[in-house]
Amino acid sequence: MNQHLDTVIIIGVLIVFMIYRRIRRNIGWQPLKSRKMMTRITIFLIIGLLFFVTGAMHPISLISDVVGILIGIILAYYSGTMTQFEQREGHWYYRPSTMIGSFVTFLFIGRIIYRIYQMYLLGQSGGFQAGQSGDVQNMNYAIGNSWGSGLILIMFAYYVLYYIIILRKNYHKSGKKDIGL
User: Fold this and answer.
1) What is the pTM of this model?
2) Contacts of 121 (CB under 8 A, 6+ apart)
3) Mind listing the pLDDT tens digit for each residue in 31-61?
4) Which of 49, 84, 108, 141 is 20 to 30 A from 151 in CA distance terms?
5) Which residue(s) pair with 66 in the sheet?
């Protein structure tokens, strides 16, 4: 029992740290580090594709995933137009749209909180019930997860496209050769 509590605390601390870093990246001037952004694009793209492929097996999940990706693309495009660049001491910095970045972050946080609450309720009820009411509960659980996947894909689509936009804008501003994004 004590080991279970330690695991929950460690996971909680990691989640809080990730949220802190995400919020910090949405406020003020950020150093533009191309390699880091390319790594993030790759990671977000792979994880997002895994979510999408997993959700593509269910019609409700597929719809929510496509809607989430479209919303993420729209937010990234709009945020990319609002991003400002500045060169200091030979290095480029960018200032993201705090409002849009915070919105995407709070969607992510809301999804985590909702998922924890859902797991808590499931644990309180003793898990899935057999019979007709269990089928309804299983269906509600699956629908809740499918829309949650769509919310997560908003974040993945947003950051993949936003970082691509930032990198393209930076390379055009700095006069460097286009990197082919």
Assistant:
1) 0.73
2) none
3) 888 899 999 999 999 988 988 888 778 777 8
4) 84
5) none
Q: Is 2 helix (H, G, I), strand (E, B) or coil?
A: helix
Which of 115-137 are b and which e, b meaning 16 or more Cβ less than 10 Å from the residue's Cβ?
A: eeeeeeeeeeeeeeeeeeeeeeb
- Each residue of 135-168: pLDDT tens digit? 444 444 444 556 777 788 888 999 999 999 999 8
- DSSP H helices, the chain, are 2-24, 34-55, 59-82, 98-124, 132-174
DSSP state of 127: S
What is the layout of strands, in order, in the sheet containing 84-88? 30-31, 91-95, 84-88
Structure tokens belonging to residue 43? 């990671």
